[in-house]
Write a structure and sequence with these properties.
The chain is built from 11 helices and 19 strands. It is α+β, with helices and mostly antiparallel strands and 460 residues long. Strand 12 and strand 13 form a beta hairpin. The chain is globular and about 85 Å long.
């Protein structure tokens, strides 16, 4: 139950209902369920159905298809954080004997390993997994479509390999590891590899007539880590909160942030869409959304969240095609974010003053370019060009008294304070760039030196 302060305005709720009602009617889906979360609280649930009095609710399972990949990616990142593997490791090091042993774990996570998009025929989504009993049955004879590391090419078999990697490292089935390491800690008790009542049935709707055909719900076998799961809107919003903030019981915030960062160049022409490590990253109407879409015969699903707005949305439909759930979920996020913008947290001063850090703040010059250095609440620093033109970055403190860049051009670069013999600050060194208190300060160690005649005018 949310408090009255957390409820949406009636006009916002009506706009959300109108959007999903339109999606269900125009997409001709037997049913559609959606939910929105703001600042960690579920603020709206909605559904539409063709059956009077039988609409799905937040506890009704739908199949989520490739949203499953995000769960598999979390399991792999957990192995990395425990020191059991490195993302740069070739697959062969941990899962020997496959025809894809030379590709790296990072490439598999980000779909840049060059593997095929699908397993060999028959269509794996609509046939029993028992038809593909081994990994080579999933990969097929022509498993490589592109050189590894060159481009993004979505691969379902790639996530089968990652699931097998998890099983080899843990000595347990993918489903067991998933249950123990993600679902239980996050309280996702209505997410499962097999359907659990109440759940929606999957349907295909004829493209030219208002008639339906039931779709089979196959056990995908080895392909399960790529698309097996069933879930509810309530459970996926819990998962969205985890993907936004991290949870030390599952994966630390820094590792979740790593998943959200683009891992490979986008598909040609799609500069508004990237893929991280098990997460899609898209731009919609100036807003960055992170999450995943999914589909299996009879079902489509989408989960998006905006970290800036602190809003997440989930949309399910039990139809093979017709409902653009990714676009609908993005629009639900936009409706809430635009109609009821996030109210900033109150400004508060730092709990204590660090005079040494405070003395570093203010203007610094790289040559003649003016930059402002600010102190952040976590003892980090933020460097930004004064006029907005140039390179800026955030930095986090390290135990040795330096700072490491978190983003932008300086990501991973070291910022350090260079002092004179008397302890006073001479300059800042950022990846060999010298920042001084005055433009080309003659008292600082400026590379190449400073002309001894100093600044001059036209008549000099």
């Amino acid at each position: 139950m949310t408090s009255s302060d957390e409820q949406l305005l009636p006009s916002t709720r009506r706009a959300l209902l109108h959007r999903i009602a339109t999606a269900q009617a125009e997409g001709r889906s037997p049913s559609l369920a959606a939910a929105v979360q703001r600042q960690g609280q579920v603020v709206w649930n909605g559904s539409r159905t063709c059956v009077d009095g039988h609409a799905p609710d937040a506890d009704t399972q739908f199949r989520i298809g490739s949203l499953t990949k995000t769960f598999t990616a979390v399991l792999v990142l957990r192995l990395r954080d425990e020191g059991l593997l490195d993302l740069a490791d070739p697959l062969e090091k941990h899962l020997p004997g496959t025809s894809a042993g030379d590709v790296t774990i990072h490439q598999l996570l980000g779909h840049s390993a060059g593997l095929g998009a699908e397993s060999p025929a028959p269509w794996w989504e609509r046939t029993p997994g028992s038809l593909r009993p081994g990994l080579e049955d999933v990969l097929g004879e022509q498993s490589r479509m592109h050189p590894a590391g060159r481009r993004h090419h979505y691969s379902n078999p790639g996530y089968t390999l990652l699931g097998a990697l998890v099983e080899a490292a843990r000595g347990a089935s993918w489903a067991e590891v998933l249950q123990n390491e993600i679902l239980e800690p996050l309280g996702m008790h209505r997410t499962s590899p097999q359907a659990q009542a109440p759940h929606a049935g999957g349907w295909a709707v004829h493209p030219w007539a208002d008639v339906m055909l039931p779709e089979p719900a196959e056990d995908l076998g080895l392909m399960a880590p790529a698309g097996q799961l069933w879930s509810t809107t309530a459970d996926l919003l819990r998962f969205a909160a985890f993907l936004a903030e991290g949870d030390d019981r599952v994966l630390a915030a820094a590792s979740v942030a790593e998943m959200r960062a683009p891992a490979a160049a986008p598909e040609s022409g799609d500069w508004d869409g990237h893929y991280g490590l098990g997460l899609q990253v898209v731009r919609r109407k100036g807003r960055t959304l992170v999450g995943h879409t999914g589909s299996l015969p009879g079902f489509v699903a989408a989960l998006w969240f905006s970290a800036e707005d602190d809003v997440a949305a989930v949309v399910f439909a039990n139809v093979t095609s017709g409902v653009p759930v990714g676009e609908v979920a993005a629009e639900l996020v936009g409706i809430v974010a635009e109609a009821e913008p996030r109210i900033p947290d109150p400004w508060r001063p730092l709990p204590e003053v660090d005079d040494e850090l405070l003395a570093l703040t203010g203007p610094w010059y790289w040559g003649t370019r003016t930059n402002i250095l600010r102190l952040t609440p976590d003892r980090g620093l933020e460097l930004q060009p004064l006029n907005g033109q140039g390179r800026g970055a955030r930095f986090t403190a390290r135990p040795d008294g330096t700072w490491i860049g978190l983003d932008g051009y300086y990501a991973g670069e070291t910022l350090r304070v260079v002092r004179n013999d008397d302890g006073s600050v001479n300059h800042l060194d950022l990846g060999s760039f010298v920042f001084t208190r005055e433009p080309y300060d003659p008292a600082a160690a400026v590379p190449g030196g400073v002309d001894e005649d100093g600044w001059r005018g036209l008549g000099s």
